[in-house]
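Hi everyone, sorry if this is the wrong subforum. Our group has a chain we'd like a structural model of before ordering constructs, and none of us has done structure prediction before. Sequence below.
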Amino acid sequence: VKGVYLITDAHTGRQYVGSAYGEECIWQRWAAYAESGHGGNVELKRLLSERGKEYAENFRFSILEVCNMNLGNDYIIERETHWKNILMSRRFGLNDN
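Answer:
Right subforum, don't worry. Here is the predicted structure as tokens:
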């Protein structure tokens, strides 16, 4: 499914809000995190480079919102922005965008 997800650092409580849209669904997106530990996210990369790759074991994954596969990418990105604002993950979390 497409949608918006949350990664929480269980050690610090800092959060990252992400989304999966287009051909990539949540499962594929999370598989990228499982493989690399950071899924390409700049802040998570930085965190793992500072604390070691095994620090990724502190990350907890949750689904915030499931979206219909027929919805456009713009709608899902809009919902991702909504959750970033609600959870303040840009100011206090791991989102830098």
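For your construct planning: The mean pLDDT is 94. Strands lie at 2-9, 15-20, 59-67.
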